[in-house]
Design brief:
By secondary structure, the chain is an alpha/beta fold. It has a single domain, classed as 3-Layer(aba) Sandwich (Rossmann fold), CATH 3.40.50. It contains five helices and seven strands. A seven-stranded mixed beta sheet has the order 3-2-1-4-5-7-6, sandwiched between helices. Helix 4 packs parallel to helix 5. The termini are far apart.
Length: 182
């Protein structure tokens, strides 16, 4: 697995050990960033970060800062290996996503670009809770990229325009929120 674009293009990424994490394939990352186009200066949040590949890809392409959140010790170890090897100054948090979102809301944190890629087996059940918790941390004009299984997709009820694409066994939905806020 490698970074597919930007200043870190071609650099290797470690994936978490075991089968619990499913890293986003390179061709899917490339397609997502082609759709997103410019991420320069974005404040990025990567929920259920896994290997951290999506946030790392954003940093490689000019994002200003990234916060990567995962509850799996194996995922956190892989993320730390990756960001250390690449010399990235990002925030890596070993925490449950819901807990992080509650804290982020309390402290008024907001993000321009959010990646949401929960375990496929949990995605369908997470929609309502994630929608309510995620909305307060979205900056005006934020973009949210959701990856899930097309057979049991994660449905977020965001008040936003969306673009849906399928890549093999991955369903990608990109939400574009109102640039003037809610």
């Amino acid at each position: 697995m490698r970074v597919v674009g930007g200043s870190l293009r071609g650099r290797k990424l470690a994936a978490p050990r075991g089968r619990a994490t499913r890293p986003t394939p390179e061709r899917v990352r490339e397609a997502v960033f082609s759709i997103l186009a410019d991420v320069s200066g974005d404040i990025v949040l990567d929920l259920f970060a896994g290997s951290g590949a999506m946030a790392i890809e954003a940093m490689s392409r000019g994002a200003a800062h990234a916060t990567l959140v995962d509850s799996s010790p194996a995922a956190i170890a892989a993320i730390r290996r990756n960001v250390d090897a690449l010399g990235l100054g990002v925030e890596v948090l070993h925490q449950r996503v819901q807990q992080f979102l509650r804290n982020a809301r309390t402290y008024g944190r907001q993000y321009d670009l959010v990646f949401v890629d929960p375990p496929y087996s949990q995605a369908a059940a997470l929609g309502p809770a994630l929608t309510g918790a995620l909305t307060p941390v979205l900056a005006p004009g934020a973009r949210v990229v959701v990856e899930s299984d097309p057979r049991a997709p994660l449905k977020l009820g965001l008040a936003a325009d969306s673009d849906e694409r399928r890549y093999g066994d991955s369903l990608i939905e990109i939400f574009h929120t109102n640039p003037h806020g809610p």
